[in-house]
Amino acid sequence: MTIAVQPTASHFINGAYVEGGSEDLPVVFPATGEVVATLKLADEALVDQAIAAAKAAQPAWAALSGVERGRILRRAAEIMRERNRELSELETIDTGKPLQETLIADAASGADALEYFGGLAATLGGEHIQLGADFAYTRREALGVCVGIGAWNYPIQIASWKAAPALACGNTMVFKPSETTPLSALKLAEILIEAGAPAGVFNVVQGAGAVGARLVTHPDVAKVSLTGSVPTGRKVYAAAAEGLRHVTMELGGKSPLVIFDDANVENAVSAAINGNFYSSGQICSNGTRVFVQKGIKEAFLTRLAERLKGVNMGDPRDEAVNFGPMVSERQVQIVEGYIAKGLAEGARLVAGGQRREGAGFWMEPTVFADVTDTMTIAEEEIFGPVMSVLDFDTEEEVIARANATEFGLAAGVFTNNLARAHRVVAQFKAGTTWINTYNLTPVEVPFGGSKMSGVGRENGRAAIEHYSELKTVYVAMGDTEAPF
Ligand SMILES: NC(=O)c1ccc[n+]([C@@H]2O[C@H](COP(=O)([O-])OP(=O)(O)OC[C@H]3O[C@@H](n4cnc5c(N)ncnc54)[C@H](O)[C@@H]3O)[C@@H](O)[C@H]2O)c1
């Protein structure tokens, strides 16, 4: 792997790399704990400069036809695909996720979003409403300057999932990646310029919460889209409300994966593995509460234990490795705290549970059985490789228990009974659900949460609603009457 990790400069504003800010932002390779690059956090002047660039670029960008905007986005998708390996290697160094994963799920998913919304751009419009002789029509218009704020688990995917619909609708964007994974959003900015996007259409500033807060409250910002935790979501939503700004909130979860005793056990075990250990468990929609009907509990746990022997934990740059480190020391410590709580509250540890000693941030894939609903590990989002297996008897009972959480991001059901599958998903209080699979999120389908897990939807045609608004135009064909 010979990619350059240190970027040309820390920020990307008005079509060019810009250096600035005083405080250092070290970038750490999670597999070793080494600092592999050093960037700078933006100061207030840089944030203002980025917003000003986005504001200046927006009218001309929105004035292009949808075909023209879409062509640029689709060209960006092609460039991203051509550079998939390089981008995936960068993402692996920044996040610690195995190259085996980043090669298929990160820049590739970003490219899908650019292609999909590039295709939709030319189709956006309003409707015509006949009112007798008069009529009205609606125009679908851009919101203006949008702010995107990302989490650290899927950096270039999150940046692309926000930029693609925003830009397709004629908005411009200032994106702030997570301070833990600042690198790949800069590459998206480079690619968009190369694809022909005018300067200022997509800008990147680096920073932590303070920079995010300044972006969210800037008077020239029309919309804020955040991917992050529920506590941050509450703060950002409240701050955005002050200026009545539009929001999309993609927040955390504690999602249920319900496995009935008529399910295909092998597939259910695969789903539980994908939904708990992919990306070392650092996925918002993970099915971390695995409800298994009592009749197949032993078969499920036995097969899960056998399948866990296939874990290949090691240097994430090695394509044969299928389980990498966690993103940071802090995240490992959070997970260690939850594992200790699980043990203290009486859950049965059936796999893992140990931090791997030495350099880097390594935690074994961990499974607890006999977990009950009120244990901390069943109630709180852990955001690490910890699966909780809970037992259940009846359909009615499991639906009530699956929904008994403040979160509502995702949910899944495994059963070979078709009617039951649809009956159960209809009752899940969650934004994204799966039948006989888990965690598939193609760009064509809406993704997002209900309850405390979010507001709005990303992807699919639904995302267009969240990056544009309708203007109504009433057209009178006759005289205007008045009472006096
Ligand atoms: N629903 C989804 O699509 C989705 C996807 C990935 C991750 N997540 C969630 O993200 C969380 C993990 O990511 P994280 O630890 O980076 O989340 P986080 O909430 O700590 O940070 C998210 C982002 O918000 C910024 N931020 C923090 N305080 C801010 C403030 N006051 N104003 C503006 N911005 C602020 C951070 O700098 C970061 O860029 C988990 O809860 C996970 O479930 C959700």
From TrEMBL:
Active site: 250
Keywords: Metal-binding, NAD, Oxidation, Oxidoreductase, Potassium
Residue ranges of domain Aldehyde dehydrogenase in the record: 17-473
Organism encoding this protein: Donghicola mangrovi
EC id: 1.2.1.8
The UniProt record lists the keyword Nucleus: no
Xref: Pfam families: Aldedh (PF00171)
Top-level EC class: oxidoreductase
Organism ancestry: Bacteria, Pseudomonadati, Pseudomonadota, Alphaproteobacteria, Rhodobacterales
Keyword flag NAD: yes
GO MF annotation terms: betaine-aldehyde dehydrogenase (NAD+) activity
Name by which UniProt lists this protein: Betaine-aldehyde dehydrogenase
Protein family: Belongs to the aldehyde dehydrogenase family.
